[in-house]
Amino acid sequence: MFSILSQKNRKSIKRYLCMDTLKKVPMLQSTDERVLKVICNYLKPVIYSENSYVIRAGEPLDLMLFITQGIIWTFAGTQVDGSGKLNGSSSSSTSSITRCLEKGDFYGEELLSRISTYISFSDLPICTDNVKCHTKVEAFALLAKDLKTVVTEFWWYFPNLNNSELEEKLALSSVRAVRRRNREKKATRSPKLAADHREQRLAYQRLHASC
């Protein structure tokens, strides 16, 4: 149903359903709303059936999830030692419920923390939780590759990036991208695009001034 809507309507619906939840994410609470809107544009609708797993403990955490309907349980996976016994427990139970996620909740902030620091797929965090649907769940997913695109495009909003050489490359890439778009755009540049251009140029200048 969502796929038959116009692109404009899809953007509006995603912002309506997910913008408030995005603002709940601690790392995004002080982020410019323009960046949040771009993140919304990358969100993909997903549906999970009752009792299905979104992700299991030990798998790479490659998405953030923003729930719009349904209930998800997250519970820690129990490690097994070399003898096949449960570590730290004599109980026959292999897991314990730690959190219940419902409409308006999110999961996967560790991915944002990792990518906004290292921006590398080789450093994706490993999920320590089993994430299982208690009911049918409707949500929007932000994939790691799309989050990386956002961080690359708006790198100056993520001050935790700790690789100065990478920051310089990203700055140059951003400036070149703006120049390329300006060359391709024959019409007069809009005020918003001009503001973005100035902001990127100033960010690049600040980066070199701090070196």
Describe this structure in words.
- This protein is of the alpha+beta class.
- It folds into 2 domains: 2-152, Sandwich (Jelly Rolls); 163-210, no CATH class.
- Helix content is 41%, strand content 20%.
- Strands 1-8-3-6 form a 4-stranded antiparallel sheet. Strands 2-7-4-5 form a 4-stranded antiparallel sheet, with no helix packed on it.
- Helix 1 (7-22) packs across helix 2, helix 3 (109-118) packs across helix 4 (144-153) and helix 5 runs antiparallel to helix 6 (191-210).
- It is globular.
Summarize the structure.
The chain has 211 residues and is α+β, with helices and mostly antiparallel strands. The protein contains six helices and eight strands. The protein has helices spanning 7-22, 33-42, 109-118, 144-153, 164-184, 191-210, and strands at 44-48, 53-55, 63-69, 72-77, 95-101, 106-107, 129-133, 137-143.
Q: What distance separates the N and C termini?
A: 51 Å
Task: Count the DSSP helices.
Answer: 6
Assembly category: single chain
* Mean pLDDT reading: 78
Please provide the count of β strands: 8
The CATH topology label of the largest domain is Jelly Rolls
Radius of gyration: 20 Å
The amount of helix comes to 40-55%
Instruction: Summarize the helix and strand pattern as letters.
Output: HHEEEEEEHEEHHH
Number of domains: 2
